[in-house]
Amino acid sequence: MEYRTLGNSGAVVSTYALGTMTFGNETDEAGAHAQLDRYVEVGGTLIDTADVYTAGVSEEIIGHWLAKSSARDNVVLATKGRFPTGDSPNDVGTSRRHLRRALDASLKRLGVDHVDLYQLHAWDPITPLQETLSFLEDAVRDGKIAYGGLSNFTGWQLQKACDLIDRQGWSPLVTLQPQYNLLVREIEWEIVPAALENKLGLLPWSPLGGGWLTGKYSFDEEPTGATRLGEDPNRGVESWHRRSKNQRVRDVVEAVRGIAEARGSSMAQIALAWLVDRPAITSVILGARTMDQLNDNLAAADLHLTDEERATLDQASDPGAADYPYGAPGLAQRDRPISGGRS
Prior knowledge:
Layout: E1 3-5, E2 12-14, E3 16-19, H1 29-41, E4 46-48, H2 57-68, E5 76-81, H3 96-110, E6 115-120, H4 129-141, E7 145-151, H5 155-168, E8 175-177, H6 191-197, E9 201-202, H7 228-231, H8 240-243, H9 247-263, H10 267-276, E10 284-286, H11 291-298, H12 307-317, H13 328-333
Parallel strand pairs: 3-4, 3-10, 4-5, 5-6, 6-7, 7-8, 8-9
Antiparallel strand pairs: 1-2
């Protein structure tokens, strides 16, 4: 396992994090504890959860494991708040009222007095941003969280948050958790540059594109059986009915397959290795139903692609930005020779 700083903080985390959205739903407690044991055994340190993962059960399962594990001092624990935790209008959002209750409930379920990283799970268009960010600052000062982070923010939202924090002299945010993989690269247009400018580390979720980058889905036959798309072919952003008809998805999958076969690696390992070395990446979040899936993913920990392999994947996965402002003319305009002039 390799290690990097948690964004612009002094805390150090493994380059692969363990995501726990499956805990209590697709993975029972015994299976979850086995995954946690295996993850820390190979040197993993960053465990990511959220209060809405299986309605809090994911946090409870992690809390039960922490209570019996000797790994607590080596684990960097991250959770999130923002989405509905009840039926009241105040049981959702990033208001001071909701986040205070949400954080306290997360700490109770996890069985800890603080978490290392507390992330706003998404933008809240209703709550004033100053109210939200001042809550994070108070939580840092109260010792309930070590660092604040964001999840699913756009570029302008990220920049607005960082600017407000800078003006107020509050503790800086350290990370952003976005969807990012070979099939979803549009964050490179605005979100990645904003993260780099503000020294935020990225914690990508869905690094395998909901399973598409593992090669397990056929483009010609609707999936069935005990997989996410087998149980629900229209599931979320990875919908089989949408992606199976997309030629770019086919091109990316075949490019990953070719490199995997040449290397003798799994397709998942190649997709993860491409992502972990992208600009601004701190730690890639792994999400596995089974121990076999987790072990396969963890085998990417010391895998790095060649320049030629990266170029092949970059070309196949190019999202095809229009020529301005994100295509070649726009990119050219963002740079200039130091010598100046028209020549």
